[in-house]
Amino acid sequence: MTEQTAQPRRLLRAALRWTAAVVVFAAVGAGTAYGITRMDRTDVPGLATHSDGRWDYPTLVKPPLPSGSPAPFDERNTAGAHYADLRELVLPAPGGAVEDKKLRGRDGWLKTEGFLAEYADKDARHELHQTFVDNGLRHVAARGWTTPDGTHTRVYLLQFGTAAVTDELFGKDLAPASGPREQLRGAGTSVFDVDHPIRAHDPDMLCTVYVESEPYGAEQVRQGYLSAGDVLAVIVQSRKGGAKAVPFRQTVALQSELLG
Hints:
The protein contains six helices and seven strands, in the order ααβααββαββββα. It has helices at residues 3-24, 30-38, 112-116, 122-134, 163-174, 245-259, and strands spanning 98-99, 139-146, 152-159, 190-192, 206-212, 219-228, 231-240. Strands 1-2-3-7-6-5-4 form a seven-stranded antiparallel beta sheet, with helices on both faces.
């Protein structure tokens, strides 16, 4: 990609970020919520235990880059490519969780159909599959787990050829700010989560988050989308009686950190 082609992409990303920011900053207290979810427990009076709702994730370690390869948001990396092993960029499960081995796929690669199974409508799955083929989907890496409180988490990383492709899929086919293009399996009506702290994510990334609105069924579903260079990340959490906001925000923020 030349500098001439990279410039329109940067302008598009900036416009999308500002559009999302206008919506998100309308929520009161988002910055405070972010601060609490990112502080060490010992830094917040009265939150020195697990009662703050966060999960006990292992220390994050990014996989090494091949010699001479730039990071995804390095100025030299005009394609926004992640040169590290995508399978090593998937967020690990927190302590005490039971991992869903089916999402590991074969040799760590999940078939496209494994991701598309998240979507309820058969026609939508077929259309998205063709969209991914047309846009050169390279790999899907995933991980899923269930925590002791019954929250079921699924994290998917979809890698394409360039950041320009990912940005377009993000805004057009999967995560417009108005609401998800297609509903997930088990979800009713999902709406833009104006309370989600946008500052929890790398400013080079686009982020859209939805929450299933009441009344919901047996489970409530939360879903987040990140456009991170050539990788499109999808994070889904569902839980009977209501999916909690704090561990979801923590999960999205940490996955953002690994991709940054």
